[in-house]
Amino acid sequence: MKAISQDTLGGPEVLHAVDLPKPVPGTTEVLVRVHAAGLNPTDWKHRSTGYLIGEPPFVLGWDVSGVVEAVGRGVAIYKPGDEVFGMLRYPVGHGAFAEYVAAPARTFAPKPAALDHVQAAGVPLAGLTAWQALVDVAKVREGDEVLVHAAAGGVGHLAVQIAKARGAYVYGTASAAKHDFLRHLGVDEVIDYRSTDFTTVCDGLDAVIDTIGGDYGPRSLTVLRPGGVLVSLVASMEVADLRDQAVDQGVRVESMICEPDLSALKSLAALIDAGRLRVAIAAVFPLDELGRAMELGESGRTTGKIVLTVP
Q1: Roughly what angle, to the nearest 10 degrees, separates helices 41-49 and 290-298?
Q2: I need a labelling partner for 238 at 20 to 30 A (CA). Which of 70, 71, 145, 220 fits?
Q3: Distance CA 83, CA 66 (A)
């Protein structure tokens, strides 16, 4: 099979096409023919630093939408020909930037009927991150007030929609050019981070979703109500420093890494098919232009998700 790999760490120029053996599904695994693969910031972070998976060679990518080609022993929930989408186990299950992937069957869920493969590939990692942060960790419910930082980003734009679907009042930070997009998604109050300090707008919030880090963490603590929670999706070292401050202020800080989750994927699919959650696709590239796709992603100028198609 064709895949995009790298032999050294570095910029997009280290990526190159390779021929690899087609995977064979093991017990309780499925073999999926990849039709589209989503791109996430963690991909270029791993490309340049190795981060959580070490030294190359490796094939990156965690977001998959495709068709089941074969099933391993013990798989009862899928059969060849089923359309599925999902997130490969993070971080060690990487390999979506290829023609085929083999992974545990419950890594995947039936692809939402309302989406094609390109749209579906933009959902899993960002959608599961948003769902797990809001639902499992923050336990957001009707009437809560929530702030989502980088609200027009891959995780952010899905998070605001999930929060709205759960009945929350949502604040979102973004540049002014993205405010109309966010209002269309349902954000109640959009804050231009370039001209307005969000701490002057928000107060007494139930939850903050932080995808940025840096000084956003300590500043976010100040806008939470007693018992509120800051869910950090950035480096754990930063979170450790925040926890002492949080105790003094009577709030919580939680750090999380997204996990494969069949039940949550089905919940996301239900919202999508009901018209309550949509994924914004910023750009689409063929697999062999992964380097160009990463350059665009690293520019920080996109709204929504970048997706690769696999011929």
Answers
A1: 100
A2: 145
A3: 6
